[in-house]
Amino acid sequence: MTGSVTPEADRTATTNTKMSIAECRKVFGERAKDCDDATVKKMRDWLYQMSALALDLVKENSITSVDDLKRVLEEKNKGKPI
Q1: What is the largest CA-CA distance in the chain?
Q2: Per-residue confidence (pLDDT) for residue 16, from 0 to 100
Q3: Does the pTM exceed 0.70?
Q4: CB 39 within 8 A of CB 51
Q5: Is residue 7 part of a domain?
Q6: Counting beta carbons within 10 angstroms of the beta carbon of residue 54, is it exposed (0 to 12), middle (13 to 18) or buried (19 or more)?
Q7: C-alpha angle with apex 78: 43 to 70, nearest 5 degrees?
Q8: How many structural domains does the chain have?
Q9: Which domain holds residue 28?
Q10: One digit per residue, pLDDT tens: the chain, 82 residues?
Q11: What's the CA angle centered on 50, arms 41 and 57, to 5 degrees?
C-alpha cells in the first residue's frame, strides 16, 4: 500500500483548533458511548499528540510515501524487541 503525505494533511493536523467533544463523540461512535467528556477529551488530546509526533517524523526524514515511512520505522526499530 502506498500513499503520500500531502501539504493539506500537514496544515490540517497542525492547526490550533481542536475538534469539539461532540465532534469527537461522532467520530468515535460506539467506542465512546460509555465514556464521560473528560475521557473523550483525553482520547482526543492523545490522538493530537500522536499526529504531531507522526508529522515530526515525516518532516525529519523527508517521508513522502507509506513505503518511506515503513523503511524509516524499520531502520529506527532494528534490533529492538517487538
Answers
A1: 42
A2: 67
A3: no
A4: no
A5: no
A6: middle
A7: 60
A8: 1
A9: 16-76
A10: 344 444 444 444 455 689 999 999 999 999 999 999 999 999 999 999 999 998 898 899 889 998 988 888 888 888 887 6
A11: 160
How many Cα atoms occupy the beta-carbon half-sphere of 42 within 13 Å?
6
Residue type, 24: C
DSSP percent split of the chain into helix, strand, coil, nearest 5:
65, 0, 35
CA distance 58 to 41: 26
The C-alpha cell of 75 is what?
531502520
The answer to whether the beta carbons of residues 44 and 21 sit under 8 Å apart is yes
Contacts of 50 (CB under 8 A, 6+ apart): none
Q: How many angstroms separate the CA atoms of 38 and 35, rounded?
A: 8
